[in-house]
Amino acid sequence: MLQPIISRGRPLNLPIPTGAASRLLECIGAAVPSPWSLVSILDDDPLLARRFHRLAISTLVDGARRGGSVGEVVMALEPDVLRQVATAAAVMHLLPASPSGLTGEQFDRFRFWEHSAAVGVLSRLMARNIGLDPSQAFVGGLLHDMGRLVLDVHFPREFSAVLQYQLRHDTWIRDAEAAVLGYDHCMIGEQVASAWGLSTQLVEIIGTHHQPERTDPPASQLAAVIHVADILARGLQVGYPGDDAIPMLSEPTLRRLRFNWSQLRDCLSEAEQSLHEARLLVQETMRPE
Amino acid sequence: MLKRVVVFSPNAVTVGQVLGREVRDSDDTLLAPAGRVVDQPLLDRLRASGLKGVPVIVAPDSMILAIRKAYLEASLDHLFRHWRFSPGMRRLRAMLSEHRTGTNR
User: Fold this and answer.
1) Virtual CA dihedral for A40, A42, A44, A46, nearest 10 degrees?
2) Which residues pair with B5 in a beta bridge?
3) Does the distance separating the beta carbons of A265 and B99 come in below 8 Å?
4) Helices (H), A131-260
């Protein structure tokens, strides 16, 4: 059970999902989600349907199903993958790149999603290499920093103060969040993910991706993969994660994953084509109607 | 041939070219400093800004490569500025530099 975040002496009011994305999250939260209900929800919102369809293509390792309609994709996906794709589509829909918030050019949500998508494709690649579920890794990487978007979309004044603090003190944005708000994007991200009914795996990734070895017990291997992928994406400077200072790569995490430097190098070489895919994914899911 | 600066239409600029002078939009907001290597997001911004011309360095390939490498190293120095004394992070920085300049191939 997560402890509520206390802000100014009161529990923080978490944003509540609305519209078709909210119904989508509710639908996939059921023990056995009904594909027909899911199609009907997607039919009600063409932009959400487009995001779902595009994400299904990126999430699947097998691109052969690329041609189908939304309904065909829903029927063809394994229930677990369906849940992951629908979760990612709903969160992207609830935290869109535009319109930009109060922070405007200071925090470019479009480029932020580009960074997140790059973490998604790098995580997918690493997961495949070490025998973890690539689609779970992709969605985990895509949504790992959703807490920061929650701050920009739902707490713009506070987030603007975070960005100003970060510029003034040349700190990591996560340290600026903690200094200004008393909590960081990992904490609010995991609270919101839990409140919106995201899987426990995703909640864990969102909450622990910066320090996967510091929790007790240590975070899952998937969270560890996303930690490494996040650092690599920052090093490749794809998109904009919110600041221009790379956080510490946890070497114990690398050792736990049995990743050595040579494998990391290979992973970077393999990732080149996928990074182009990450940019395309954001362009195609986040451009206005 | 020495390097020179030629003004191209934004649609003729390509990823990997180097800006010869700083570029500002009609509100005098800085879009990119001189010496910045054009990447896809910058190219999109330049094309969307309504500029008529973009000053780009024209020089022999070897000189362009050297400018790009210097830009990348400066950019990695900035990214890793908090980790100058961490052996692990220095190793990561070196690996990224090799990967991004193609010297690991």
Assistant:
1) -150
2) B57
3) yes
4) 134-143, 146-154, 156-169, 173-181, 185-195, 200-208, 221-236, 251-256
Q: What is the DSSP letter of B4?
A: E
Confidence of residue A174 (pLDDT cuts 50, 70, 90): very high
Residues of A in contact with B41 (CB under 8 A): 111, 114, 239
Residues of B in contact with A97 (CB under 8 A): none
Tokens 């929800």 locate to A41
Looking up tokens 């070219």 gives B17
- Residues with Cβ < 8 Å from B38, sequence gap 6 or more? B13, B14, B15, B16, B17, B18, B19, B32, B46, B56
**A98, amino acid identity:** S
Q: Which residues pair with B7 in a beta bridge?
A: B55
Is there a contact between A102 and A160 (Cβ–Cβ < 8 Å)?
yes
pTM listed for this prediction: 0.89
Share the mean pLDDT of chain A. 89
Q: In Å, how far are A32, A94, A227, A241 from A20, measured between CA atoms?
A: 19, 10, 31, 28
Quick one: average pLDDT of A145-152?
96
